[in-house]
Known about the structure:
2 copies of one chain form a homodimer.
Chain A: E1 4-7, E2 9-15, E3 18-24, E4 27-32, E5 35-42, H1 46-54, E6 56-61, H2 67-75, E7 89-90, E8 99-100, E9 105-116, E10 120-132, E11 137-138, E12 141-142, H3 144-147, E13 151-154, E14 159-167
Antiparallel strand pairs in A: 1-13, 2-3, 2-6, 4-5, 5-10, 6-9, 7-8, 9-10, 11-12, 13-14
Amino acid sequence: MPTMGLPVVLVGAKCQGKVNFCTVAWATMIDDEPPMMAVVMGKDRCTKEGIKENGTFSINLPSASSVAATDYCGLHSGNKVDKSMVFDVFFGKTLTAPMARECPINVELTLDDIIEFEGTDMVVGEVEEVYVDEECLTSGRPDMEKLQLLLYLSSGGPYFVKGRTVAEAFKAGRDFQPR
Amino acid sequence: MPTMGLPVVLVGAKCQGKVNFCTVAWATMIDDEPPMMAVVMGKDRCTKEGIKENGTFSINLPSASSVAATDYCGLHSGNKVDKSMVFDVFFGKTLTAPMARECPINVELTLDDIIEFEGTDMVVGEVEEVYVDEECLTSGRPDMEKLQLLLYLSSGGPYFVKGRTVAEAFKAGRDFQPR
């Protein structure tokens, strides 16, 4: 597999009544209108069963200060370890998608589809709401320097945060001329 | 949509005989055994037609030094602009998946499936080969400080590179104790 930087997310779900969080680095946007996202996970994940059970889940973006808790949720399966006390949990409009207050960004989703691959499943959801910690806003917009969101270097780590800004997107290439 | 760091990739394909590259930030791993990856793109992308045509494509990871060319490939559609001269192109074992020599990591894939969503399509491929620029290795392993891989802050940028290492993955949570 290639070495590349990936976002780290905590997938939250209620599994047989119990709050669970599962750490995942295989996640992507699917669309922006309507906003949809997807996470890829192993076939035996208890989080997936909880998502099917309730039809809701959350994608929480942890910051550097939650690195130990985030790594912990990746090391232990919810089938064996009770992860309901790892974070201070809150619920939003769906009422059943647990979200971690320690994460500065929380995305609340309803289940759209589960796509089965050979060795993994992709959980696709529609974004119902995005919650952002007000302390991480600058002039009303999310500020990456304040957010300190965790990223992960595949395969095997480490976790890292945003470094040097290289250029503006949709501007850097305006004057580019191919050979 | 939430603010989050995402990898930037250049999807390469031959479209009606012409080399094309399309910039995408919606990409994920699907599995590691066998290694599989996926990229999400708009329904009208000419790259997708080329992938269907040949059954092969590439995922190229650009470094900071290619930011203008990378942004250019995101600003212009291959349906309107000839992007075959943007990069120095090479081919690998599949013979039809064009790869950009300027990108320090190139992944060559065969098409596995195209999953259709409402407004986008996900191209899923099996990794056939990964090529890494030898100058970006340290003790035989890809070195993120040398690679300077581009990441993208959704939605709207900027492009950035890896910053501070926060902790080792699969270690940072070993001693964590939930409340």
